[in-house]
Amino acid sequence: xxxxxxxxxxxxxxxxxxxxxxxxxxxxxxxxxxxxxxxxxxxxxxxxxxxxxxxxxxxxxxxxxxxxxxxxxxxxxxxxxxxxxxxxxxxxxxxxxxxxxxxxxxxxxxxxxxxxxxxxxxxxxxxxxxxxxxxxxxxxxxxxxxxxxxxxxxxxxxxxxxxxxxxxxxxxxxxxxxxxxxxxxxxxxxxxxxxxxxxxxxxxxxxxxxxxxxxxxxxxxxxxxxxxxxxxxxxxxxxxxxxxxxxxxxxxxxxxxxxxxxxxxxxxxxxxxxxxxxxxxxxxxxxxxxxxxxxxxxxxxxxxxxxxxxxxxxxxxxxxxxxxxxxxxxxxxxxxxxxxxxxxxxxx
Length: 348
Prior knowledge:
GO molecular function, one term: alcohol dehydrogenase (NADP+) activity
Oligomer: single chain
Protein name: alcohol dehydrogenase (NADP(+))
Domain Enoyl reductase (ER): 12-342
CATH topology of the largest domain: Quinone Oxidoreductase, Chain A, domain 1
Number of strands: 17
CATH class of the largest domain: Alpha Beta
CATH superfamily of the largest domain: Medium-chain alcohol dehydrogenases, catalytic domain
Family: Belongs to the zinc-containing alcohol dehydrogenase family.
EC number: 1.1.1.2
CATH architecture of the largest domain: Alpha-Beta Complex
């Protein structure tokens, strides 16, 4: 029988989240039931719930930065056991059959990966996310959280961590490379930590210098204000890789000018509006403009193990569930350092 659990849901695009109950499916042979301990608040939660990326079905429970403990496993589960510390990120299923799934890139499933919320699962149900007491997920899409990571600081790694780790790894951030991070928010602060741990020379490009002390503390070698026009003159042609974490329209041509020959600007921030780019920002220096979406399950596990090895967790502000609407407003105002995490025990 399905299990009823407490959650916070968006009843409509223009309404605040409300306390409610939802049903979680019975545990199937390959399923894992997780008691959620912490759920991170991602800007994507707000975009989705407010319909910025297209229509969704309401009521909607968001949250795809989930850390908790296994409380039940299906009869044929081999990857996880009751009591394991685990996490769930931005996807809970994929077709398993297409070329990308077979290659271990489930996030790029050619038939569409199943998002942790606001998606249609393989059984026809609408997925509901982590602002809730429990979740049931097929074992292949559950990752192990190392003992060295506390669950509250680990939760944001399931989105903010992997979303920045994957492009840093893919485009070769490491010793001898110069990496710039645009934006010092939830994603940006993790990009700084990860790029530094990989051995790159790291520069933060932020609107102002108000977070400069934090940026340098987290591992940045340099910090510049993009509101100062001299920044773009002084840094022209400097970087091998730029990770743009901003979920708003920016002047891409200005940032592309900061790339060295063969440099790449990767967008991981996902604004609702188009981002125009001039082709002559790319051609003269053989520059690339790319995008990257989270990471595979294997890469997410690799990222968690890397973070445990290097002592990296998100900088978090833990809140009660009844503070979620205030937290969303603060996220929109960039008033968080650097990730809100819901203590889901407050849902009881």
